[in-house]
């Protein structure tokens, strides 16, 4: 309530999102003239208007110089090689560091060592247990190794190797959960790297709230796009006259100089977004998937993929099914409402501390995904947790 009150009173944000000082009524039309103007400028003049033109001037003025012209002029998007792995014969294409495609690949590599299809679906307590432990071990490695590759060599090849997955999966005890979660050991993927690949810190002088859109066109071109301003309302600073809110990603950097995410000039912030595309063995697109949801993003994507491929669920049912999240930062295994009580009791008997959320809870993200069956029929499903939607021309 205090947040909304502050936003409503903001002379820049209030008039846009809180007409007459109130939240817009359901079914009303929200008109964003300033944002439309900014998008029109970018469409007409290209990126230069944002980084060097009038929008750049407005950013510098609105932020009081915290963002400088030279910062905007120096910024450039970097094209990196995607993270490529396999799961049950499908090629999994994930986003490279600094985002979380590595965690998706590493977790699925561990799960492939188990015949997940033999379990009794998403509610089988042993399936939940194995998935939670694989997620936990992969996330511990992500925290230890995945950061801005302009500053560190990230051992991606080792992290996503099948041999490393075998080593890590040996830590999954079928009779006892790793407890507490933060005690999960970090592995050493460097042993599974090519000897020609460097490891360790690079010389920096040598280095050059979230929305998911899944798209597939008639020619088979696929895009999974996850974009975020970090916290809800980002930094709560809207660029006056241009209608967009600045992110607060700097909060992802650490004041600890020894941290992989230490605050430093030009360092990009680590994030857990994980846009993902799966392909059939013949190269055609099988699935386009992604979700918002902060630290639950990778686990929600993994649950959905396993539901479809291993448990034979339709995409709609796979998205609607309850989700879990296990990561070192949580005190317990987080479970969405809808799991049977006997599943929860069995997990507690294995040593899991459980925290249950509501059903179809936006805490677990909001998957927007597309799937193409073997007959070429395309199905799109919008998020049930965050008012997503599917559409076709």
Alpha-beta content class: alpha+beta
Mean pLDDT: 89
> What is the gyration radius calculated from CA atoms?
22 Å
Q: What's the total number of strands? A: 13
Distance between the termini: 40 Å
Shape category: globular
Main sheet specs: 6 strands, antiparallel
Quick rundown:
This protein is α+β, with helices and mostly antiparallel strands and 393 residues long. It has helices at 2-9, 14-17, 33-45, 48-51, 54-62, 69-74, 101-111, 125-145, 156-159, 162-169, 297-309, 315-320, 341-349; strands at 83-87, 90-94, 152-153, 200-201, 211-216, 222-227, 276-279, 285-289, 324-325, 333-335, 354-356, 369-372, 378-381.
Description of the structure:
Strands 1-2-7-8-12-13 form a 6-stranded antiparallel β-sheet. It has a 3-stranded mixed β-sheet with strand order 9-10-11. The protein has helices spanning 2-9, 14-17, 33-45, 48-51, 54-62, 69-74, 101-111, 125-145, 156-159, 162-169, 297-309, 315-320, 341-349, and strands at residues 83-87, 90-94, 152-153, 200-201, 211-216, 222-227, 276-279, 285-289, 324-325, 333-335, 354-356, 369-372, 378-381. 30% of the residues lie in helices and 13% in strands. It is built from 13 helices and 13 strands. It is of the alpha+beta class and 393 residues long. Helix 7 crosses helix 10 (162-169) and helix 7 runs parallel beside helix 11. Mean pLDDT is 89; it is low at 195-208.
Secondary-structure topology with pairs:
Blueprint: H1 2-9, H2 14-17, H3 33-45, H4 48-51, H5 54-62, H6 69-74, E1 83-87, E2 90-94, H7 101-111, H8 125-145, E3 152-153, H9 156-159, H10 162-169, E4 200-201, E5 211-216, E6 222-227, E7 276-279, E8 285-289, H11 297-309, H12 315-320, E9 324-325, E10 333-335, H13 341-349, E11 354-356, E12 369-372, E13 378-381
Parallel strand pairs: 10-11
Antiparallel strand pairs: 1-2, 2-7, 3-4, 5-6, 7-8, 8-12, 9-10, 12-13
Helix pairs in contact: 7-8, 7-10, 7-11, 8-13
């Amino acid at each position: 309530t205090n947040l909304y009150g502050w936003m409503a009173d903001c002379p820049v944000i209030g008039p846009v999102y809180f007409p007459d000082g109130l939240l817009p009524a359901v079914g009303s039309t929200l008109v964003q003239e300033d944002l439309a103007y900014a998008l029109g400028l970018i469409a007409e003049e290209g990126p230069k208007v944002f980084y060097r033109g009038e929008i750049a001037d407005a950013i510098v003025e609105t932020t009081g110089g915290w963002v400088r012209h030279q910062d905007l002029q120096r910024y450039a998007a970097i094209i990196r090689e995607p993270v490529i792995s396999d799961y049950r014969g499908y090629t999994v294409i994930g986003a490279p560091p600094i985002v979380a495609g590595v965690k998706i690949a590493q977790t699925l590599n561990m799960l492939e060592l188990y015949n997940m299809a033999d379990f009794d679906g998403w509610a089988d307590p042993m399936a939940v247990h194995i998935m939670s432990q694989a997620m936990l071990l992969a996330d511990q490695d992500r925290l230890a190794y995945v950061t801005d590759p302009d500053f560190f060599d990230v051992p991606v090849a080792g992290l996503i190797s099948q041999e490393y997955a075998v080593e890590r999966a040996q830590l999954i005890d079928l009779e006892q959960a790793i407890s507490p979660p933060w005690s999960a050991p970090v592995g050493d993927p460097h042993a599974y790297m090519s000897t020609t690949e460097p490891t360790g810190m690079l010389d920096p002088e040598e280095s050059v709230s979230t929305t998911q859109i899944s798209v597939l066109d008639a020619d088979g071109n696929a895009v999974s796009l996850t974009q975020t301003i970090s916290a809800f309302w980002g930094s709560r600073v809207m660029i006056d006259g241009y209608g967009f809110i600045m992110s607060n990603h700097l909060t992802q950097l650490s004041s600890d100089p020894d941290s992989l995410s230490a605050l430093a000039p030009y360092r990009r912030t680590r994030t857990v977004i994980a846009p993902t595309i799966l392909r059939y063995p013949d190269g055609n697109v099988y699935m386009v998937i992604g979700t918002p949801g902060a630290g639950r993003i990778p686990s929600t994507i993994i649950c959905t993929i396993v539901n479809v491929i291993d448990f034979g669920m339709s995409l709609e049912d796979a998205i609607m099914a309850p989700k879990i999240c296990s990561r070192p930062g949580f005190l317990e295994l987080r479970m969405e409402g809808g799991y049977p009580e006997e599943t929860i009791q069995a997990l507690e008997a294995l040593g899991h501390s459980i925290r249950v959320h509501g059903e179809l809870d936006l805490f677990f993200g909001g998957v927007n995904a597309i799937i193409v069956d073997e007959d070429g029929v395309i199905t799109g499903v919008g998020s049930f947790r965050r008012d997503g939607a599917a559409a076709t021309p």
